[in-house]
Amino acid sequence: MQATVRELVDLSPVLAEVGRRFTAAGFEVHLVGGSVRDALLAAADDAALPTGDLDLTTDARPEQTLEVLRGWASSTWNTGIAFGTVGAEVRGERLEITTFRADRYDRESRNPEVAWGDSLVEDLARRDFTVNAMAVSLGEDRTVTDPFGGLGDLLARRLRTPGRAEDSFADDPLRMLRAVRFVAQLQLVPDPEVVEAMTSLAGELGRITPERVQHEFSRTLLNDSPSEALDLFVSTGLADVVLPELSALRMEIDEHHQHKDVYAHSLIVLDQAIALEQADPQAESPDLVLRLAALLHDIGKPATRRHEAGGRVSFHHHEVVGAKLVRRRLTALKYPKDVVEAVGRLTFLHLRFHGYGNGEWTDSAVRRYVTDAGDLLPRLHKLVRSDSTTRNKKRAAMLSATYDSLEERIKELSKAEDLGRIRPDLDGNRIMELLDIPPGREVGEAWRFLKDLRLERGPLDPDVAEAELLTWWRNRSS
């Protein structure tokens, strides 16, 4: 296994050369962190060696690192120099070289009090998890340093911290979300001490900025199999702090009024959506919008649950409530506006398919479905199909066949009409000319009337559209 990490170094002429340059200048330099971890994982799984940015650590101070790189790196950047990090690009390889650190954390502000260190082991001790606290020297001997048993943990698929988990998470609460991500990304199982510390310190996550929380949560969601990690996120109470709507899906079910486990259902929908996404060669993958919508599409159910006669439970208009909750929560987590709007719209539309009975779709209904979905239609197809989690094989087959027929109707109607760009049969200038009105609110009302008419009846001849508009205007004005 350690030979594999040395092989990674030897395969990269840039790493070998950077080792020689630092050694000649009298400094240590080591490959560290995710590069070492991923190379060892590749060896364990008999997979190809990973590629990507390379993290290095050195006893050289930042200004000394810049001097070593001078005239060799094609470019350098020092945006992280306050934290000891110098970036460089050499022959297409991106390096981040950080001075040994011996930080202490201010547990009020959660900011590190940056201090340079002189020891590799001391630097590794301050890292988040043992699997990230391994290093390989870029000197001639290629020594592997693993003071906290990271290799053994990696082979056992175990997630531990170099020191006490409680101290590590108190120093930087975001590490608890990284633990969640590593469950999804690396299929690691957190040590009981890690789970206990996460549970007891979950509230500390509230001190982390929404941007950092959102970044880690999204990285978790973009892995191939995030459900187990999301279970850890919810069970430790982290979700209660930053995404309480997800925890709320674990609604109590009483013996008289039973319904599907909405939380478990949501995780299954997410798994099925990922499978459909990955099977579609034309789809963006991984698709953050689809995955957020799959996970959160039912978050309006707790607020709309009603106990009905005969032990039934209803969730009327949960898609409307859910869309509002999605927009509010994703905005609070600082997601981009386009992501917030897309996930909100998918949440709002996810039940539309079920409102049309047994597949008796009129041309008008098909037009409205496509128009309302807009460019989200491929994602809506996947979300609706994923939302079928019934164990009744006959019902599952019926729902699938019904949606097949809807997609076929969309294709057929699209051949006759441009469903993706449905507009009124008259433009604004013609509306103003016919009705003899200036630009303003009334033009917008007339435009929307013609748009609805177009959705209902399909393309109209201009003279028919003009007659309908004049009739509407007379009735409106009377």
Automatic annotation (TrEMBL):
Residues 258-431 form the HD/PDEase domain. Its cofactor is Mg(2+). The keyword Secreted does not apply. InterPro entries: Bact_CCA-adding_enz_type3_sf, HD/PDEase_dom, HD_domain, HDIG_dom, NT_sf, PolA_pol_head_dom, PolyA_RNA-bd, tRNA_adenylyltransferase. GO terms for biological process: tRNA processing. Its EC number is 2.7.7.72. Keywords: Magnesium, Metal-binding, Nucleotide-binding, Nucleotidyltransferase, Transferase, tRNA processing. It comes from the Bacteria. GO terms for molecular function: CCA tRNA nucleotidyltransferase activity; metal ion binding; nucleotide binding; tRNA binding. It holds the Pfam family PolyA_pol_RNAbd. This is CCA tRNA nucleotidyltransferase. The lineage of its organism: Bacteria, Bacillati, Actinomycetota, Actinomycetes, Geodermatophilales.
